[in-house]
Amino acid sequence: MSIACCLPVLECVYCLGCAGWLWKKCLYTAGHESENWGLATAEEFEPVPRHCRLVLAVYEDDLRNPVWEPPGGYGINPDWLILRKDYEKTGGSAPPYMIYLDHDNADIVLIVRGLNLAKESDYAVLLDNKLGQTKFQNGYVHNGLLKAAQWIFDMEFEILRGLVESYPGYRLTFTGHSLGAGVVALLVMCAVQFREKLGNIERKRIRCYAIAPIRCMSLNLAVRYADVINSVVLQDDFLPRTTATLEDVFKSLLCLPCLVCLTCLKDTCTFEEKMLKDPRRLYAPGRLYHIVERKPFRIGRFPPVVRTAVPVDGRFEHIVLSCNATSDHAVIWIERESQRALDLMLEKDQLMKIPQIQRMERQESLAREHSEEYNAALQRAVALNIPEAHSPPSYGTFHDLEEGESSERSSGETSLMSIKKKISESWDKFVDRIFDVDESGRIVFKKQIPQTSQRLIS
What we know:
Layout: H1 7-27, H2 30-33, E1 38-39, H3 42-45, H4 47-58, E2 81-85, H5 87-90, E3 97-102, E4 107-112, H6 120-127, E5 134-136, E6 139-141, H7 143-166, E7 171-177, H8 179-193, E8 206-211, E9 217-218, H9 219-224, E10 229-234, H10 246-251, H11 256-269, H12 272-277, E11 282-283, E12 287-292, E13 305-309, H13 331-352, H14 356-383, H15 399-402, H16 407-434, E14 435-437, E15 443-445, H17 451-457
Parallel strand pairs: 4-7, 7-8, 8-10, 10-12
Antiparallel strand pairs: 1-13, 2-3, 3-4, 5-6, 9-11, 12-13, 14-15
Helix pairs in contact: 4-13, 6-7, 7-8
């Protein structure tokens, strides 16, 4: 009877489909996501291990007598510590943080620590969000993280403004891990939006390093702020990839593998076009740096490779079924592997013996490449019809969008003025090259101009 009803055939098709999906997900490793990205250079990746150590320093109770110091130390001078606030001083409104004046690297750094599993206030910040709950600058952001970021900004912008004005050659950097990474990603957006509160600091002097961030902003914002936000992800880290609500994640800690498999199944069965069209869907922010150190069906860790890009589609869309999905989230592992990767980059540069002039030229070309890649990402977002995606006229200029003006009109006026200027300059050069003024003040042809040229001009 079952044969007549073709049930065995349906069962076989179902089993083959499940087996194919499982085989595909097992073969799908984090390296596939970034295999077409470019390789990061030592110049752009150099701050990452240093900021990982600064995040680790926030966990210490006494920086003069550290307990969890990594090999080589934190690289921090306790005398340069400007401010430090713990849970008692923040009152649960934000995770603990500190402000550090890094004279060695000309940097003003605000560091926010990651999630504390023993603190209910951190859970309150993390779980305070619903899909599409909070809009920010024509996009969507994580509600709880935005509240924490605004609280820190309102409390510390006067101190930051004083430091920015006292050290005009220093950069203003925000860095954090996990929960703190999401907070600083939204904090740097507040800093860019309200630069007048920070002494009208230039946008190019502001930057952010989000270490293993959670998905905290919509795709249009993630791409738009890629010139100031840098996200660092180690291999299979699950948090920048998970689309499940964080409340479900923490409710399912006893059966996290089951939740991961269900989330993988949901993502696999969801068309990417549908994901991109949802303006409420949150993503990992900014430019992405992906540290890859493992390969499928290989045992052990390989020399880490860092790939970077500003992706639009394929931005850590799928969870990776890996036994390292949770361990890769630890900041101590990220610091260790990022330092290994940086050492390999520096060793390669030393073998190549790049002169100082060439290094400066490479930095300039790197800035141009980032600019081109950034503009290409914005254009790609517009081409994919990402909701509220805009294509500004140049790299890192969003003043019109931030002030609520029309970006299209300003870009059109700017391009029209530049065209008129070029035409005027070319005409003046043409007149100076062809004509001359005689003693009586009349305009005549220059004597060195051939007669044939004169005939052609006439």
